[in-house]
Amino acid sequence: MFQDNLKELDIVLNEEQLKQFETYYEFLIEYNKITNLTAITDKKEVYYKHFFDSLSLTTSLDFNQIKNMCDIGAGAGFPSIPIKIVYPHLEVTIVDSLGKRIKFLEQLSEKLNLSNINLVHERAEIFALTHLNSFDLVSARAVGHLALILELGIPMVKPKGYFIAPKGSNYKEELNDSKNALKVLKTELIKENTFSLPYDFGFRSNLVFVKKQNVNGYPRPYAQINKNRL
Questions:
Q1: What are the residue boundaries of the structural domains of the chain, listed by start?
Q2: Which of 37, 64, 104, 193 ranks highest by number of CB atoms within 10 Å?
Q3: If pLDDT is split at 50, 70 and 90, which confidence band does 165 have?
Q4: What count of Cα atoms within 13 Å lies in the side-chain half-sphere of residue 94?
Q5: pLDDT at 102
Q6: Which residues are annotated as a binding site?
Q7: Does 110 have pLDDT greater than 80?
Q8: Is the dihedral of CA 135, 191, 50, 66 positive or negative?
């Protein structure tokens, strides 16, 4: 069933990839008993609200042309780990401020036999300062307001590279509130990929931005970003 629904995304999984997703689910549920990683534990919901939702990003860009990506605040690995399973050539960097999540992802990467995964226990705004203009793509799912995550993520994107922000039904309001951030960071919205998850599991909008040119001085310290968003 999952395999059939993925045809909507033009994705066909081989046997190894299907096993990787099964292992991912089983380990997530097992680990979740000792460390709270997700409130979603029903198998069907995990497969669609986490796995399918993550893979929906691949309809917004040609991931065969993306060499490396950074995932801010990935939590239990969403969206980058499902994308990495489907596109194994990707070099993936995950930055998360909680060590318990990084510990889970270290063990998960071993179980899934994934290579070229960089797991960083650090705050995104601190990591960004030493990785400016470094990634073809940066993503941030369920991390915070659009204006906030744009300031955290855009500085790490290479000029002409991409930033993807998966959002829910209030995405237009956040977009409107982020006009100044886009202007300051020399970034442009190029796609609003809106859709509904299978089985009425919710509305999504994957917002795709392109960075036109580098702007120095960002990101600012988090307290400053939070107090006075761009």
A1: 2-227
A2: 104
A3: very high
A4: 27
A5: 96
A6: 73, 78, 124-125, 141
A7: yes
A8: negative
Percent of residues, the chain, with pLDDT higher than 90: 90
Write the DSSP assignment of the chain as a string of letters.
-HHHHGGGGT----HHHHHHHHHHHHHHHHHHTTS---S--SHHHIIIIIIIHHHGGGGTS-GGG--EEEEET-TTTTTHHHHHHH-TT-EEEEEES-HHHHHHHHHHHHHTT--SEEEEES-HHHHHHTSTT-EEEEEESSSS-HHHHHHHHGGGEEEEEEEEEEE-TTHHHHHHHTHHHHHHTTEEEEEEEEEE-GGG--EEEEEEEEE-S--TT-SPPHHHHHHS--
| Placement of tokens 């069933």 in the chain | 1
Nearest to 151 by CA among 226, 78, 94: 226
* Residue ranges of the binding site for S-adenosyl-L-methionine: 73, 78, 124-125, 141
- The answer to whether the pTM exceeds 0.90 is yes
What CA–CA distances, in Å, run from 196 to 48, 49, 51, 113, 227?
11, 11, 14, 31, 33
Q: Tell me which CATH homologous superfamily contains domain 2-227.
A: Vaccinia Virus protein VP39 (3.40.50.150)
Six-digit token pair at 125?
Answer: 């705004």
CA distance 224 to 230: 10
Give burial (CB, 10 Å; 0-12/13-18/19+) of 198.
middle
- Crossing angle for the helix pair 99-111 and 15-32, to the nearest 10 degrees: 150
Q: How far apart are CA 142 and CA 13, in angstroms?
A: 26
